[in-house]
UniProtKB/TrEMBL annotation:
This is NADP-dependent alcohol dehydrogenase. It comes from Rhodocollybia butyracea. Pfam families: ADH_N (PF08240), ADH_zinc_N (PF00107). GO terms for molecular function: oxidoreductase activity, acting on the CH-OH group of donors, NAD or NADP as acceptor; zinc ion binding. It comes from the Eukaryota.
Length: 334
């Protein structure tokens, strides 16, 4: 019989359309979920002309489960993000790096009839995560992608004694500040806007430097070298500006996706042992730990709320495209 759903989809024309859809019966490893909250991020803008259901930062209540599902049950509150399925057979999966699976099924690449802007959806048990009691659904939804993205390089490469520079107070940056601060790192924020100083310090930064109009960053007065530099800004950053106060063997991690090339000074990169390391969403084990950490340490997402309707989705995506979202969009069921 399947599951009837009302979906908000992108279309080849670029418009968001509302559509009735019937999901098929559950496979043995699948779960049907009634959606309550969904984040939207700029990835949803990237797929503006793809015929697919919007949304991949999802929170909902399990409606029913397939015959082989054992880790969750009806009534559980769960979240899920970019991946729907990984193969568990390739070298990357077998060595615990399933977020880079060679045969993955990710949002925007597969399962175009499954998303979070619909009344009920299907998802593989494999990439579902129980939401801890102490974490609200409004906070949890953006952590399924945006939070996961900043958590990964921090938990993999940051120690409590590191000075962590975060470039941009954005949908990613404001979460990176909180996670890094709660991990015990010395957090240093760089932003083009002086108006964000107070907010950055309230989120957990120890130092703040406004960079707009500054051609020589040595004049910022950075007190000590930076060990890890997280680029959360969507704007292209001239990395050479930061090199004078990066420590030897510092790691630079760009997180946002954009066009063009990323360039670094050749000689200093080699001679000072600098590392530039891309990073994506968390692997399954770390996604669960990110949610637990956020609940235990009071990580809160700065959100703008929209109704999960055609009007709400259009308003949220328009604000995202204009770059005016502060800082994550969350759509919710009335």
């Amino acid at each position: 019989m399947g599951f009837e759903s009302i979906q908000l989809r992108r279309s080849p024309s670029g418009k968001i359309v509302q559509k009735a859809f019937v999901h098929p019966e559950l496979d043995a490893d699948e779960v049907a979920i009634k959606i309550t909250h969904s984040g939207l991020c700029y990835t949803d803008v990237h797929y503006s002309t793809t015929d697919m259901v919007l949304g991949h930062e999802d929170i909902g209540i399990i409606h029913s489960v397939g015959s082989n599902v054992s880790s969750v049950k009806p009534g559980d509150r769960v979240g899920w993000g970019y991946p729907n399925k990984t193969c568990q057979r390739c070298d990357l999966c077998l060595r615990g790096e399933d977020n880079f699976c060679a045969d993955k099924q990710f949002f925007g690449e597969a399962d175009f009839d499954q998303g979070s802007l619909e009344t009920i959806t299907m998802h593989k048990e494999q990439w579902l995560f129980k939401v801890p009691e102490g974490l609200s659904s409004e906070d949890a939804a953006p952590l399924m992608c945006g939070g996961s993205t900043v958590w990964t390089p921090l938990v993999n490469h940051v120690k409590p004694y590191h000075r962590v520079g975060i470039v941009g107070i954005s949908g990613l940056g404001h979460l990176a500040i909180q996670f890094a601060s709660k991990m015990g790192a010395d957090v240093v924020v760089f932003s083009a806007s002086e108006s964000k100083r107070v907010e950055a310090l309230q989120l957990g930064a120890n130092e703040f430097y406004a960079t707009k109009g500054v051609a020589d960053y040595t004049k910022l007065g950075v007190t000590k070298p930076i060990d890890r530099l997280i680029i959360s800004s969507s704007a292209k950053v001239d990395l050479s500006l930061f090199y004078p106060f990066l420590s030897k063997q510092a790691m630079i991690t760009p997180l946002s996706i954009g066009e063009g090339d990323l360039t670094v000074p050749y000689g200093p990169t080699v001679l000072q042992g600098m590392q530039v390391s891309g990073s994506i969403i968390a692997l399954r084990f770390m996604q669960s730990k990110a949610l637990e950490f956020a609940a235990r340490n009071g990580i809160h997402v700065v959100v703008e709320r929209f109704s999960m309707t055609l009007e709400g989705a259009n308003a949220a995506l328009a604000k995202l495209k204009e770059g005016k979202m502060r800082y994550r969009a969350v759509l919710f069921k009335d």
